[in-house]
Each structure stands twice: as structure tokens, then as C-alpha cells.
Design a protein that fits this description.
heterodimer, A: 263 residues, mainly alpha, 11 helices, B: mainly alpha, 69% helix
Chain lengths: 263, 269
């Protein structure tokens, strides 16, 4: 555990050093959010509520989805793939720690740094410029925090899993990119899942993706409440278990397969 | 000029051959890139059943904008890969750009030839598919003028986006760090121009009319092709300004690029 926290701390510190990059990232997230809001406002066209989301909810959705990008590393995460290709994995495997836990620790530090620097800031800026929805009770805030952590765990365990394809192909980039793009669609990042036709929502819930961004959004907006929240969290935990297990199996098979080039 | 063209061809053919080495990986890359456009447009198409239109435009009309922008941005992204601010910033940081400066070949040609990302074909194919969908769904009244203007709009958009890439690349002479902010204008411009521009806040429309003339490259030509009224009431000539706007942007970009090169001091790596 101490090792885990130490790894988190180091990667946290590394993240917060890049202040200019953070600022640039914030500006970009904010601008893209403005574009998305304009599209949603035009789509709503004065309707009060669509699929259970008010206009204010839709704007808050945009803020939340933009705020999640850095926290859940939604655009790219090739770290494990890179470490397989560069051979760095060899020294990491020698460490007295499970390879998965090792990266989990590093990603936790990265995620927390981004949640604080980018996530919270984006929400604050949007709250200043627009009218946004805010959780109504302490219990709901608590649910938001728990969902945030579980979402990160779901996100990390599938990112780790797809990165492991690097063991079997010399160029896994295309495959991993594919998985990321799929996640934008099915996690409710591009559009709130509830806007989609029912058959598509059902399809999405067969994958782990809705348990990342969409879970955060629905709990934060209060679209799911009471026992439904617990049910959602149960779904998250189930997926975490499945993905972690799959990751461990793939890792074991991959390591047996792995040849480290000398030199 | 001719030698430049020859050099360019050789540089590009090396890049292409390199990328074709791993065929499966290449195919996956193309598919993944095409997938971005499918997914983005698909998410819009899927939610359209809940909404009637977007700012008075139907899905097919938005597809017209979306398709042509995807094709031209994809083309530009492939041709101007060497100027991609993210890639170019790395060249400056690593000092590989300094190596190019030492060679007795025109620097612009070398940068253009320094990268050529084939997987962008994915975006182009996908854009064509969306554009064809728009053509099938819409009954456009084709005239000789429209048929001639369509390729001109496409080329103008390629030049326009290329200009933005060159400006972004030039900025990295000073910032060294490749700044994510540049994405606001390139990828942001691409996203913005995929929708009818009148849905955006006034200040944003003004900025993308007078500072960056994006509105003349997609929105106004589309009004002409689709015979839609102009909510901003500009004179009718506004429909036909795409080539001028494209040329202005690329010329300003190239002038800025030359200025940047004259004042370039190596990162010292």
C-alpha cells in the first residue's frame, strides 16, 4: 500500500508541474464545450425537457463530460503499450509489486491531479458562465464521489486491458485507438446516453463504457436516485471485477509470450 | 520548382512505403480514423429522432456540411501532416528541424515532405460516405454554377485548414512547447464548421467571420448549394467568397511562416 501511494504521489507531482499545458488544456476543453452547448441549445429549440434532461441538465452534461476527459484519460492512454515496446516493462516486472497495481498507482496520481486541476476548474468556470445543475444533498454528493472513484477504476481496468494487446502485435496503436473511439460513443461522452434510441442504450449497457462517464453524469444530475444509484454502483463493481480478472489473465498469458530484446 | 516537386515526391514515397510495411496495422489505423467520423456523426444521427432539426436544418442538410468538411479536413491533414502543430513542435524540440535547415532544399517543401499520414484516408472515405448520404437525401437543384463551385469550395477549405496548420506550426518556433490551444482553431474550426454557423453565440460567429473567415468556407457555400436564405443578410456575393478566403488564409500563413523562419533560433537541443 505504501508503495502504491508513493507511486501515486510521484505521478501526481509530475502532472502538476505542467502548468502551461494544463492551462492550454483547460482553454481547449472550455471552447469545445461551448461548441457542444451551442449544438445542444439549437437541438432543444426551446423545449423544456428531452428524455428527462432539462436544458440546464444538458449544459451541465457538457461541462461534466469535458471535465471527465483528463480525469479518465479519455483521448489517449498508451503507457502500458509503450512500456512493452520500449522494453521498460522488464524492469517493472522485476519490482515486488503486481504489474497491474503498479500502473494503477501511477494512474491514480495522474487522475487525481487532473481531477483537481482540470475537472474542478472546468466545473467552476461553467458554473460562472452558465446556469448549471448542482447536487442537492450531502448524500448525493457522497454518491457522486463514490461514482467518480468507481468510474475511474472501470476506466483504468479497460484501458489497461486494451493496452495489453501490445504483447501480441507490433503495432497495437490502431486497435487501442479503436477502443477509445468506441468508448466516446458508448460511454455517453459525445451525447447523453438517454438521447439515444432504446435498442442502442441496451447495446451500450452490454459494455463497461456507460459505467464511466455516463454513470458520473447520471448520478451528478440526479437522474438516477435512491436504490437506482446503488444498482448502478453494483454494475460498476461487477465490471471492475470482470475487467481486472481479464487483465490479470491476459497479463499472465502475455508475459509468457513476451521476449525482451537485449541491447 | 521542378526539382522541388521531384524532391517532394521522393520524400512522400518513402513515408508511404514505410507506413505500408505493416499492412494489418495500417488497415486498422485507417479504420480507426474512419471510425471517429462515423461515431461523431452517428451520435448526432441517432439522437435526431428526439429532436426535429438543428437551428432549422435537417439531418441531411447538416450531413452536407459535415461530409464536405470531413473530406477537406482529412485531405489537408494528410497533405499537411508535416505542419501538424503537434508533430512540428516535436521536430523543433528535438532539433530535427535544424537538420532540415542545413539541407540545400527549400525548407517548406522539406517540412511538407517530412510526414504524410496515410491513415487520414479513413476520414476522407467516411466524409465521402456522409456527403453521398446528404446528396441522396436532399434534392439539390444542380446548376452549372454549383457543379463548378463544389470543387472550388473543397480546394479552398483544404487551403484554409492548411493555413491554420502552418500558423500553428510557426507559433511553436517561439513557444517550443506544442500548445494544445492551437487545436481550438484547427480541430475546433473543423468541428465548428460541421454545423450551421448561425447556431453559435454572436461573438463566436463574428470572430469566425472577421478574424478567421471560416464562415465563408462552409456556411455560405452551403446556403448557395441548398438554396437556403441567409439569416445574416450579407450581400449575395458572400456565397462565393470561399476561394478568396482560402487564398488569403494560406498566403497570410505562408508569410507568417517565412517571418518565423527568419527569426528562428534553435531550441539548442
Amino acid at each position: 500500500m505504501r508503495l502504491f501511494l508513493e507511486l501515486s504521489k510521484i505521478s501526481f507531482q509530475r502532472q502538476i508541474t505542467y502548468r502551461a499545458a494544463t492551462l492550454a488544456g483547460l482553454a481547449t476543453n472550455f471552447f469545445f464545450g461551448l461548441l457542444r452547448i451551442a449544438v445542444l441549445v439549437a437541438l432543444y429549440n426551446e423545449q423544456n425537457e428531452v428524455a428527462g434532461l432539462t436544458m440546464t441538465d444538458a449544459i451541465t452534461f457538457t461541462a461534466l463530460s469535458q471535465a471527465s476527459i483528463a480525469y479518465l484519460s479519455m483521448f489517449r492512454w498508451f503507457e502500458v503499450m509503450n512500456s512493452v515496446y520500449t522494453g521498460d516493462i522488464a524492469s517493472d516486472l522485476l519490482k515486488p509489486m503486481n504489474y497491474f497495481t503498479h500502473w494503477l498507482g501511477r494512474d491514480w496520481g495522474r487522475a487525481i491531479a487532473n481531477l483537481l486541476m482540470r475537472g474542478v476548474t472546468i466545473m467552476a468556470v461553467y458554473a460562472l458562465v452558465f446556469e448549471i445543475t448542482v447536487p442537492q444533498s450531502a448524500v448525493q454528493w457522497l454518491a457522486v464521489v463514490v461514482t467518480l472513484v468507481l468510474s475511474w477504476l472501470v476506466s483504468f481496468s479497460w484501458r489497461f486491458l486494451v493496452n495489453l494487446t501490445a504483447f501480441w502485435t507490433p503495432n497495437a496503436l490502431g486497435i487501442i485507438r479503436f477502443a477509445f473511439i468506441l468508448s466516446w460513443f458508448m460511454s455517453g461522452f459525445l451525447m447523453p446516453l438517454r438521447f439515444f434510441p432504446d435498442w442502442f442504450i441496451t447495446l451500450c449497457y452490454l459494455t463497461p463504457f456507460p459505467y464511466t462517464v455516463n454513470a458520473i453524469i447520471e448520478v451528478y444530475l440526479g437522474i438516477v436516485s435512491g436504490p437506482e444509484v446503488l444498482y448502478l454502483m453494483l454494475g460498476q463493481i461487477t465490471w471492475i471485477l470482470i475487467l481486472v480478472l481479464a487483465g490479470q489473465l491476459a497479463l499472465r498469458a502475455g508475459i509468457r509470450h513476451l521476449v525482451i530484446q537485449g541491447g | 520548382m521542378l526539382t522541388s516537386l521531384h524532391t517532394y515526391r521522393r520524400l512522400i514515397s518513402i513515408k508511404i512505403r514505410g507506413q505500408m510495411q505493416y499492412r494489418t496495422a495500417f488497415l486498422f489505423d485507417v479504420l480507426a480514423t474512419a471510425f471517429i467520423t462515423i461515431v461523431e456523426f452517428g451520435s448526432l444521427a441517432l439522437i435526431f429522432q428526439r429532436f426535429e432539426n438543428i437551428g432549422g436544418w435537417t439531418l441531411a442538410e447538416v450531413a452536407f456540411l459535415y461530409g464536405i468538411i470531413a473530406v477537406s479536413f482529412g485531405t489537408m491533414d494528410m497533405l499537411f501532416s508535416g505542419f501538424d502543430p503537434q508533430f512540428f513542435g516535436q521536430q523543433v524540440r528535438r532539433g530535427t528541424f535544424d537538420q532540415l535547415l542545413l539541407r540545400p532544399v527549400d525548407i517548406t517543401v522539406q517540412v511538407l515532405g517530412s510526414e504524410f499520414i496515410m491513415r487520414r484516408l479513413g476520414r476522407i472515405f467516411q466524409g465521402i460516405a456522409i456527403f453521398i448520404f446528404a446528396l441522396i437525401m436532399l434534392e439539390i437543384q444542380w446548376t452549372a454554377g454549383k457543379i463548378l463551385y463544389l470543387p472550388a469550395v473543397y480546394i479552398s477549405q483544404v487551403l484554409f485548414f492548411g493555413g491554420l496548420f502552418i500558423i500553428g506550426a510557426t507559433i511553436s518556433f517561439w513557444t517550443v512547447e506544442s500548445l494544445e490551444v492551437v487545436n481550438i482553431f484547427t480541430y475546433g474550426g473543423n468541428e465548428m464548421m460541421s454545423y450551421p454557423m448561425h447556431i453559435y453565440p454572436k461573438w463566436m460567429v463574428r470572430f469566425f467571420t472577421f478574424i478567421i473567415p471560416a464562415i465563408f468556407l462552409n456556411y455560405y457555400p452551403a446556403l448557395y448549394f441548398l438554396d437556403k436564405p441567409d439569416p445574416f443578410n450579407l450581400p449575395p456575393i458572400a456565397h462565393f467568397l470561399a476561394p478568396i478566403a482560402g487564398l488569403i488564409v494560406i498566403f497570410v500563413a505562408l508569410a507568417f511562416w517565412r517571418f518565423g523562419i527568419r527569426h528562428y533560433q534553435s531550441a539548442g537541443t
